Amino acid sequence: MTQNLITRAALTLVALTLILNNALAADFVPPKRGDKCPVCGMFVYKYPQWVAEIVFEDGGYAVFDGTKDMLKYYFDMARYDPTKDRSDIAAIYVTEYFSNRIMWADDLYFVLGSDVLGPMGHEFIPVSGRNPAHTFLLEHRGNRILRFDEITPADIPD
């Protein structure tokens, strides 16, 4: 009985450790002064309202000056960091347009083709909620709304 209890406690401890390690690896890392976008080379901390970030399972991260550059990296990781691939990704974060809050990319809608420009020109505008995204599209002459998993390389503006 005691041995069974010890075994169960040890297994629970191992499981909790794995869960905590994965949760910590997926935490957003605020950009530091020296962090540069791996796509364009801009210093990211100068553009907090546009920050996007990919966090890797190993705790590393890549930070970007906008969703557009993050997507260029995401779809062509071999070009920008041959040591990483999509299976290494723990989380993807972007800055929601209206609140300026860092949020998971999967939780947002992305407005394409609007008249709002980011640091690198035309940009994907991350918006929380379908209705606010539609309102933004109408007010800023956007042409489409996509979820993160619907975006393709062909959707990325120059």
How does this structure look, described?
Helix content is 30%, strand content 22%. Residues 9-25 have low confidence and may be disordered. The protein is globular and about 55 Å long. With 158 residues, it is α+β, with helices and mostly antiparallel strands. It is built from four helices and nine strands; from the N terminus they run αββααββββββαβ. A hairpin with a 6-residue loop joins β3 and β4 (102-104). The chain has helices spanning 2-25, 67-75, 77-80, 130-139, and strands at 52-56, 61-64, 89-95, 102-104, 109-112, 117-118, 121-122, 125-127, 144-147. The relative contact order is 0.14. The strands form three sheets. The protein has a four-stranded antiparallel β-sheet with strand order 2-1-3-4. The chain has a three-stranded antiparallel β-sheet with strand order 8-5-9, with helices on one face. A two-stranded antiparallel sheet has the order 6-7.
Shape: globular
Q: How many strands, which pairing sense, and closed or not: the largest β-sheet?
A: 4 strands, antiparallel
Gyration radius, rounded: 19 Å
Indicate the low-confidence ranges by residue numbers: 9-25
Instruction: Find the structural class using helix and strand composition.
Output: alpha+beta
- Rounded mean pLDDT is 88
Number of helices: 4
Kindly report the spatial arrangement of strands forming the biggest sheet.
Answer: 2-1-3-4
Residue share in helices?
25-40%
| First-last Cα distance | 66 Å
